[in-house]
Write a structure and sequence with these properties.
Order of helices and strands of chain A: HEEHEHEHEEHEHEHEHEHEHHHEEEE
Structural class of chain B: mainly beta
CATH class of the largest domain in chain A: Alpha Beta
Radius of gyration of chain A: 24 Å
Largest sheet of chain A: 5 strands, parallel
Oligomer: heterodimer
Largest interface: A-B, 53 and 65 residues
CATH architecture of the largest domain in chain A: 3-Layer(aba) Sandwich
Mean pLDDT of chain A: 91
Number of strands of chain B: 31
CATH class of chain B: Mainly Beta
Strand content of chain A: 5-15%
Helix content of chain B: 10-25%
Number of helices of chain B: 3
Number of domains of chain B: 1
CATH superfamily of chain B: YVTN repeat-like/Quinoprotein amine dehydrogenase
Strand content of chain B: over 45%
CATH topology of the largest domain in chain A: Rossmann fold
Distance between the termini of chain A: 59 Å
Structural class of chain A: alpha/beta
């Protein structure tokens, strides 16, 4: 080949190799293991969402801060009364209060104290929406909450309309940040992460084939198990039965009898601590001694007390390490216990971190909601932020995708270890496997 | 070896040239694109700012084909009498225009604005939706704290305490025959103005996963509810039956195929006109003719942005309120209005298939973050994040 032609060829190759202006697909959204990317084995999707963070093009950044404030208000929305998870809400509130009190001891916002505007998310139908409107009327600069999936979703639609930054520290519903609302960030890892870890543990590591699911018949149970069920199916082990139970239910005999008929070799329970413990007890009473796995809400004293010795060997996930020896976490735990007379749980610890994130964002951006939003979502200011629960690693939807933990009960206590990464060698596509065979 | 060295040098030089070319080509639209794209295929510029009607150039009209084109934009803010620059909704009611803002209801009549607030009887100052009952002339107002009927000069409030309202945050209100439909934070429902009874639809009695709803529209005996994460819920008012339309791929993080159904389950509005159902989402827009779905995204059409706050169809044309511009579309041609970042001017972007033209407009719409829209024969009113804009139809 003559030299000019070679050069022309090189030019052509070079230009052809330049990044195309079309859509690129960088790392998988949400830590999705390659083999679990939806439809990817068969075809590429026309559009991949959440790869780039949403921008906010609206007005508001030009608004000047008020000059006559006597307090800097931050909203709180949580289950505080009339809810089956009000114990969790109380912990979330206490974690928030501790962060506010510590910030005020350090001078608040330029000498003006922070004040928590507390709202209960339980009440009239769709109460969360009304409460967020009240927060707007109160003039909060941002708000933290909540835990229940439905209330969280209802709340963030109002926050989008009213343009108030929201930091969620307690709702693990994967769809929460998949609403594409550029006013919402979540600092607690979601159930998508838990599902991938459990699928890997149950099918790849522990080699189970026939898994039954018993889940709460609510959004927490339905959406929480969604990615577990899908992922199990994608690697060749569709769950063999799914049974549901209602909030506050105490007799699970009917569901367990149906599960028993399918002869599973492991069982996944997805629900609140008390019901999960009762299900475990009744499984054993009915002669089912298969390994039991569970959702992160099992990591709770109520579960350990109710299940007693039967809790031994139970494996769940946890979004952080409550046994961490990190000095920051130990100090938080000590201060929290001293202040409130109880150990912090996952909701307290994440609320403490989330409220500190809000406080820092306000200090950095000033009293302007749009500017507070900007620093919360810029993927710089809080990317890698080290809280007491660990780092914040936001993806393009501002969901914290940091590694989570496996929790196993041993000698009456949960013990925590970093969840192993999904190993490529275990890709199931190498060989077709079906649980039904 | 000597030749190899030459090749490496050549590659290096070419790479620099190519990179420079790419950088120039990719300059932000606000810097060079306007000048580049405002040249039409015939090589002419449209200097609309010097026209009597900015944007009235015959060239603009020719490019837009059958689409209505709006120019001579007049923008209104608090300086002109609005109670707030943040406008959520706009509705044309005969000779007057009703605007819902964050701080009250503004009514434009005979060239002047008048504001109504809770002091006048409104349930809340945050007005997010407005519709007019064509049978009675009553104005129905969805607020952040309840529903108002404005009739004979008086405001009547409906809320969760005094009526069968599903929730006090009324995202959308739509008058359809004798019924007043609402989409709220706690479900959808309708108020029968004759029997004075409410009927509520939530996940308990409709094919919704959850109660939240965001918008609705109706026509030909059907109501279409934008159910946020539940796609579109269709309700047949005669048979009382429901059916739902969701994105068939079942995954939030992708759209597998654009034309297999609604493009995403996070729906934000529906609008039905001329037997076409338009559906907006925060991920693109869909069009349904009763048989086939068609999806539109900002990378494959003239849509201003995939994040769509609201849409309204008038005849064959749908007006799409996005977070980064106002688009209009008749199924073939797009006309998208965008304001420049640093001045009051902007442009109309006309897209026909793969062909795209940009025409400067002066002045332009008030702001690119569009929240509400309404059109009459002669005017287009737009509610934005920073004021209200009125465009005159010039074609």
């Amino acid at each position: 080949m003559k030299t000019p032609y070679r050069i022309l060829t090189l030019i052509f190759i070079l230009i052809a190799g330049l990044p195309a202006s079309g859509q690129k697909l960088p790392a998988n959204y949400g830590n999705i293991p390659d083999e679990l990317v939806a439809y990817d084995r068969y075809m590429k999707a026309y559009k991949y969402h959440f790869l780039e963070p949403m921008k906010f093009y609206g007005a508001g950044r030009e608004k000047l801060p008020p000059t006559n404030l006597t307090e800097v208000r931050i909203g709180f929305l949580g289950p505080l009364e009339g809810s089956i998870i009000q114990d969790l809400g109380k912990q979330m509130l206490q974690g928030s209060i501790l962060a506010i009190e510590e910030a005020n001891k350090k001078g608040g916002y330029k000498g003006t104290p922070f004040k928590l505007m507390i709202h209960n998310d339980v009440g009239l139908w769709g109460a969360a929406a009304n409460e967020v409107v009240k927060m707007d009327d109160e003039g909060v600069w941002a708000w933290l909450g909540t835990i229940d999936d439905i209330n969280s979703h209802v709340g963030i639609r109002a926050t989008l309309k009213l343009e108030i930054p929201n930091v969620n520290t307690g709702d693990p519903d994967p769809t929460f940040t998949e609403t594409n609302i550029p006013w919402v960030v979540r600092t607690i890892p979601d159930d998508r992460q838990s599902s991938y870890v459990l699928v890997d543990q149950i099918f790849n590591k522990d080699k189970h084939n026939r898994v039954a699911v018993i889940r709460a018949n609510n959004r927490y149970g339905r959406v929480g198990t969604l990615h577990f069920n899908r992922s199990a199916t994608r690697i060749g082990f569709p769950i063999i039965i799914e049974e549901r139970f209602g909030d506050g239910e105490t007799d699970f005999t009917a569901q367990i009898e149906r599960v028993k008929k399918t002869s599973p070799d492991a069982i996944l329970v997805w629900g609140n601590a008390k019901e999960s413990a009762l299900i475990l007890k009744q499984l054993r009473e009915l002669g089912m001694n298969q390994p039991v796995y569970g959702s992160d809400r099992m990591v709770n004293e109520i579960f350990l007390k109710t299940a007693g010795d039967l809790a031994e060997g139970i494996i769940t996930t946890c979004q952080y390490n409550p046994e961490s020896n990190d000095p920051k976490f130990r100090a938080f735990k000590e201060n929290y216990t001293k202040r409130f007379g109880q150990d912090p749980d996952v909701f307290a610890a994440h609320a403490y971190d989330g409220m500190n994130v809000i406080i820092e964002a306000i200090k950095k951006a000033g009293l302007n909601r749009a500017l507070i939003r900007d620093v919360l979502t810029d993927l710089k200011t809080f990317q890698g932020y080290q809280g007491v629960t660990g780092p914040i690693v936001f993806d393009g939807s501002w969901n914290n995708i940091r590694p989570i933990y496996l929790a196993k009960v041993s000698n009456g206590k949960f013990h925590f270890s970093p969840a192993p990464k999904w190993e490529k060698e275990n890709v199931i596509y190498k060989k077709a496997r079906m649980a039904y065979q | 070896m000597k030749n190899l060295h030459r090749y490496i040098v050549a590659i290096f030089v070419v790479a620099i040239i190519a990179a420079a070319a790419v950088l120039i080509y990719r300059k932000p639209a606000g810097q060079t694109a306007t000048a580049r794209h405002s040249v039409t295929s015939s090589g002419k510029y449209y200097h609309n700012s010097s026209d009597i009607y900015p944007g009235s150039s015959s060239g603009v009209i020719a490019e837009a084909k059958g689409m209505p084109v709006y120019g001579n934009w007049k923008n209104f803010t608090t300086k002109d009498g609005l109670p707030s620059d943040k406008a959520y909704a706009v509705r044309i009611d005969g000779d007057r225009v009703l605007v819902g803002t964050h701080d009250g209801l503004a009514v434009y009549e005979k060239g002047k604005w008048r504001t109504y607030t809770t002091k006048d009887g409104l349930a809340h100052n945050g007005i997010v939706s407005i519709d007019v009952d064509q049978l009675t002339g009553d104005v129905w107002i969805g607020t952040l704290g309840g529903l108002n009927r404005w009739s004979a000069g008086k405001f009547e409030t409906f809320n969760q305490f005094n009526s069968g309202m599903p929730n006090d945050l009324v995202y959308n209100v739509f008058c359809y025959g004798k019924d007043i439909w609402v989409a709220t934070g706690g479900g959808a429902g309708h108020y029968n103005t004759q029997t004075k009874q409410w009927e509520i639809f939530t996940e308990m009695n409709a094919p919704m996963h959850e109660p939240w709803t965001y918008a609705l529209s109706a026509g030909d005996g059907k109501v279409w509810i934008a159910a946020w994460g539940g796609g579109v819920i269709e309700y047949n008012t005669e048979t009382k039956h429901f059916r739902d339309y969701v994105d068939p791929d079942g995954f939030m993080e992708i759209d597998l195929q654009p034309d297999d159904g609604v493009v995403h389950d996070i729906t934000t509005a529906t609008s039905y006109c001329d037997s076409i159902l338009w559906v907006s989402t925060y991920f693109g827009m869909s069009r349904y003719d009763g048989k086939n779905w068609k999806g539109y995204f900002d990378h494959d059409s003239g849509l201003a942005s995939n994040f769509i706050n609201f849409l309204r169809a008038e005849g064959p044309v749908v007006f799409v309120c996005s977070d980064n511009g106002l688009s209009s579309f008749d199924g073939k041609t797009w006309v998208t209005y965008k304001k420049n970042d640093n001045d009051e001017n902007g442009k109309a972007i006309i897209t026909n298939g793969s062909e795209k033209k940009e025409i400067p407009l002066s002045p332009s719409i008030a702001h690119n973050f569009i929240i509400g829209v309404d059109a009459s024969d002669d005017y287009l009113w737009v509610a934005t994040s920073k004021g209200v804009a009125r465009g005159e139809r010039i074609h």
